[in-house]
Amino acid sequence: MSKSFITLVILFGTSDDILFGQNLTSIQTDRPDQTECPFITPKNYIQIEKGFVVENFNKTQKSYNHPSTLWKYGVNKKFELRLITELVSEKTNGNKITGFIPITIGFKTSLFEEKGFIPKTSFIGHITTSEIGSKEFHRKYIAPSFRFTMQHTLTNKISLAYNLGAEWNGENSEHSYIYTFTTGFSLTDKIGCYTELYGYLPTKNKGDHRFDCGFTYLINNDFMADISGGLGLTENAPKNYISLGLSYRFKPVK
Fold it and tell me: Does the global pTM surpass 0.90?
């Protein structure tokens, strides 16, 4: 969904005319909420979405994501390539391990444009590798995931978006269904906010349900900052998290 989030005051230099396209609509990102947006990265542009996360599971377990990065490349107006890299630290009972999660590769393709009751719709497919990462985080199997991402424009300041899909964890053959439901609000031309419910429905275990909200600040058409946080709604969900992020896009100079 279209996002403009508040926080992080950042000076980015004076090379906008070279690095950034000035005739495009504002940057559309897949962060900071858990609802992936249906918009495609503009053709021949690279878009980078970075997020720093601290997640508390319980009194003895905590996770740091520093950072997670979604790399996107627009192939054409209907298709983008995607790469996810994550440097994490996990702390359990005083023991801490740090390394790279196995990388994830994938794509997003546009399916339908918004028309009446039909939402703007795209499909996202990912494959998480089993061993292309730090040894401590290797998995037994390659893990696929997919989701349909949809968005309705309710007014010029309010949008409604949701995702439906499934993912595998790479440790066994079981999968979890994914759902997200988020409402976005444009507070000003630069500032936006959202509230969201999302969760995971394993085939054999109890559902994991969560809530989050956040703000965005649009520094310019190609550069966005965000802050967000969330809470677990069920016993098996993480207790809470807080995240800061930065997203930007550019067209490589030939």
Answer: no
